[in-house]
Amino acid sequence: MRIGSDAQKRRRLSILVLGNLALGLVLGLPTRALGPVEAAGQSRNPYDKYRRASYSNEGLYSEQEEIRLGEELHKQLQKEQRLVRDPELVGYVQRLGERLARVSKRPDLDYHFFIIEDPTVNAFALPGGYVYVHTGLLATVESESELASVLGHEIGHVVARHGLKNFKRAQQYQFIVGLINLSIGAIGGESTAARLGQTASQLLAAGIFTKHSRDAEREADFLGLHAMYAAGYDPRGMISMFEKLERLSRQNPDLLGFVFRTHPPASERIRNTQAEITDHLALDPRLVRDTPAFSLMKHRLRELGFARNAEPPARRRRRLR
C-alpha cells in the first residue's frame, strides 16, 4: 500500500508542477509593445497581424512526429475520458469537421473528430489533427454555423501548431524530458509504452497542449472564422456562439469547461469577429446557418439523453461503450 500511495503522491505532484509550467508558458510569453495607433486609443483590427501569416512545422517537430505524438496522447485520453461511440453523432461531427478542415490553411492533414461524454461546454484540440467536443457543447449550440465556429477554432489551433509550440517551449524543463527523450517515434517495449502513457497522462492533465495564450486564442478565432466562411457558413454563427458563452459565464459558469475559461473575454471576441466580418467578409443569403443534418444530430442527442435537462434513457451507458 505504501508503494501505491507514494506513486500517487508523485503523480499528483508532477501534475501540479506541470500545471504551473503550462500556466507559465502561457502567461510568461513576451508581450508586444503597443503601436502608436493603439497607444493613442484608436481602433485597430487585432487580426491584421495574422492576415499574412504562414504555417509549417519548421523549428518544431516534423509532421510525422507531430502525428505520432497526437496518436499517443489520444490513446491515453481514451483511457481517461468516456468517448461517445454512436455512429450517427460521431459521423456528423467528423463530416462537419472535415468540411472545415479541407478549406483551412492545413488541408492535407488527416483530422480526427471525437465526442466526449461530458455535460460541460468545452472543446479542445491536440497535435496531429485530433479534435474533441463535449456533449455539453453539442447540447448548447443552436445552429450548424455555431458548431462550425467552434470546430473551425479548434482546427485553427492545429493549423497554427499552438499545442506543439507549447510542447516545444517546455523542452527546457526537466519535468517532461522523459517524453522528449523517447523522440516520439522511438516507442517500443512494454516498459517504454507504460512510461509514455504515464507521461502523456500527466501532460494532458496539466494542459500543456490545451492552455494557450490569449493571443493564440485570437489567432484561432481568426483562422476559424475564415475557415467557416470559406466552407460556406454564415460567419455570424461565431458571434452568436460567443454570445452564448458570455451568457453562460454570467448565469452558469460551472457549465463552462476550463479551456473556455482561459479564452479572451467573450465581449472582446464578439467585437473582434464583428469587425472582421464588416471589414473583410461579404455576407450572402446563400451562406449556411443551419442544415437538416444538424436537426437530426440534435434529435439523436436527445434520444441518447445528452440534451440539456434530458433524462438519460435506460441502459444508455452500456449502449455507448
3D structure, described in words:
This protein has helices spanning 2-27, 36-39, 63-80, 87-102, 135-140, 144-159, 162-169, 177-181, 190-206, 214-230, 236-251, 258-261, 266-280, 292-303, 316-320, and strands spanning 112-116, 123-126, 130-134. It is mainly alpha-helical and 321 residues long. It has one domain (7-26, 58-320). It has a three-stranded mixed beta sheet with strand order 1-3-2. Helix 3 (63-80) crosses helix 9, helix 4 (87-102) packs across helix 6 and helix 11 runs antiparallel to helix 13. The two termini are 31 Å apart. The relative contact order is 0.15.
Question: In angstroms, what separates the terminal alpha carbons?
Answer: 31 Å
Work out the strand percent: under 5%
Low-pLDDT stretches:
13-23, 25-43, 180-190, 311-321
Count of runs of 4 or more consecutive helical residues: 15
Structural class comes to: mainly alpha
Mean pLDDT: 81
Q: How many strands appear in the DSSP assignment?
A: 3
Shape: globular
Number of domains: 1
The helix content, as a percent range, equals 55-70%
Q: Biggest sheet, in brief?
A: 3 strands, mixed
Give the neighbour order of strands across the main sheet. 1-3-2
Query: What value does the Rg take, in angstroms?
Result: 20 Å
SSE string, helices as H and strands as E: HHHHEEEHHHHHHHHHHH
